[in-house]
Amino acid sequence: MSAAPSPYARLFRLPGAKAFCVSAAVARLPISMMSLGIVLALNHLYDNWTVAGTMSASYIFCAAIVTPFYARLFDRFGQRRVGVVALGVQTVVMLGFATGAALRIPIPALFALAVMAGLSQFSFGALVRTRWAYALRGHGDEDSLLNTAYALESAIDEIVFIVGPILAAFLATSVNPVSQLFVPVIAAATGGTVFFSLKGTQPPVMTPVAVEAAQSGAAGRSGARSPRINAPARAKSALLYPGVWIVVVVFVVFNMSFTAFDVSVTANMKAMGLEQFVGLQLAMFAVGSCMGAIVFGSVRFPGSHWKLMVLFLAILTGGFVLFRLAMNHLILLGVLEILAGLVVSPMFATGNLIVKESVPARSLTEGLAWVTTGGSVGASLGSSAAGVVLDAGGPAMGLMLPFLFTGCAVPLAFAGWLMARRRVARQSLQS
């Protein structure tokens, strides 16, 4: 008797799954390269952590605020129809920013280009997760396989975050201080073009619903009824569904820790004369996260998604405390990064699963994009805060920020857990 295939093997048996998964992975390379690439380039050009951190934060923040609006367009008009135009604009603007940095144009002009580059970004992660939900719709084991699919995407995110920082640091220190800004442009253009060409796996646009048309004139006075017509449903914002907003708030707060850690470790290793190894050091966190994603996608953990999120955040907070204590022992720091990173991808997958349970299918891309937005806003704030703190107090003070941020996220997640339990209790009483 042959063993049952793994859930990952079952996923890739779905028609078109390999193509949209791989192409979306390539297109996501900018999320791991642009922020660090900006910090490395700007600090090299101007030797100022505040300028570097603030410009990186401006890029991330602008990307964050437009992501949900792009997502609503994708839900409303379809991924290919919107994506082809949006990707073209994104490629041109990102190339303009990279070229401007290479030519060392004045800082205000470079800030303007960074803002424009941020405003051109949309979430490939939300798009590919929506495709998984559509591909698995009606499958006999839909919930279990969707858990696996979202864990897989979190693992891919982490692989991107392993490759991206290493590549960015290598290019910045060994090739040219701004060369790392051009690679994300090529990756997004190539991966995005393939992704949007895959029409067979594209989810349909917002589902039409039948409504009664209002009667007027003689027909209305005679009491005749109008025929039923199909009209697109007017969907409210995904942020307004119960549970979504608190997930977004939690993601804002705890994501501040990641960019604060990245920038602070970069500063610490530069002070130690080891800047060329910063990408490898940061990648250890992503290695642990990738391992955690693979396990999370293969094992069914007991408890609600909210309960798991509280647990993961508490573990991550303890990990960041240990990072601060081991900041000058890089091998030990790398080991601790791998161990603490085991909960990172599961935490992101858990947040996406909470949103999947909270919003209707027609608003799924937007709901998932709000999670991305929360993370991006947090990343922006963390990068900016770290830059200021580093200039004021150095790496030792900067590495205190991550555990302070995640520590603040724990009670927020606990509040979300309590709110979810109360909703379930009310629904049980009503039924």
UniProtKB/TrEMBL annotation:
Topology of the protein relative to the lipid bilayer: Multi-pass membrane protein
Main subcellular location: membrane
Pfam families, per database record: MFS_1
Keywords, sorted A to Z: Membrane, Transmembrane, Transmembrane helix
Protein name (database record): MFS transporter
Location within or outside the cell: Cell membrane
GO cellular component: plasma membrane
All residue ranges annotated as the Major facilitator superfamily (MFS) profile domain in the record: 243-431
GO molecular function: transmembrane transporter activity
Membrane-spanning intervals of the chain: 20-43, 49-70, 82-103, 109-128, 149-172, 178-198, 238-258, 278-296, 308-325, 331-355, 367-390, 396-420
